[in-house]
Amino acid sequence: MPLTLPVMSPPKAVHRLALRDDAEAPSELREWIAKRLMEHESELIGHDLALVASELASNAVVHGIAPAHACLIKVESPDSVRVRLEISDSGPGFDWTRAPVGEVTDLACGGRGLMIVAALSRAWGWRRVHQGHVVWAEFVSG
């Protein structure tokens, strides 16, 4: 599992959102993220972040247990902006050894979400928490 990037400075902003428990959750999350990124951040990482957000929100709604939440953390340094997206739900998470990253057939209708997350983010992973689990992905501009 990829490790998190070291934090160089305190977060500039931390935003939280309670996700809907329906098919509209990914769309709502994309709009919410877009409102929290500055224009230059959106141009550099916005599209990748929006796609990963959709995948993680979909996983939380389809495979997790409500309630689900999103947390967007921005850390700025003089030469870059790092954004970390965390999606949490009350479900038990998944068995990392059985996660289908890279093991999907060409004809499968699903199972590519974590492959997309791995391809588009700088780092990603998951952890168990007291009331469920968190899946996170990090993006860096600059």
From TrEMBL:
Histidine kinase/HSP90-like ATPase domain ranges (all copies): 25-137
Gene3D superfamilies documented for this protein: Histidine kinase-like ATPase, C-terminal domain
Protein name according to UniProt: ATP-binding protein
Molecular function terms from GO: ATP binding; protein serine/threonine kinase activity
PANTHER family membership: ANTI-SIGMA-F FACTOR RSBW, ANTI-SIGMA-F FACTOR RSBW-RELATED
Keywords: ATP-binding, Kinase, Nucleotide-binding, Serine/threonine-protein kinase, Transferase
InterPro entries: Anti-sigma-factor_SerPK (IPR050267), HATPase_C_sf (IPR036890), HATPase_dom (IPR003594)
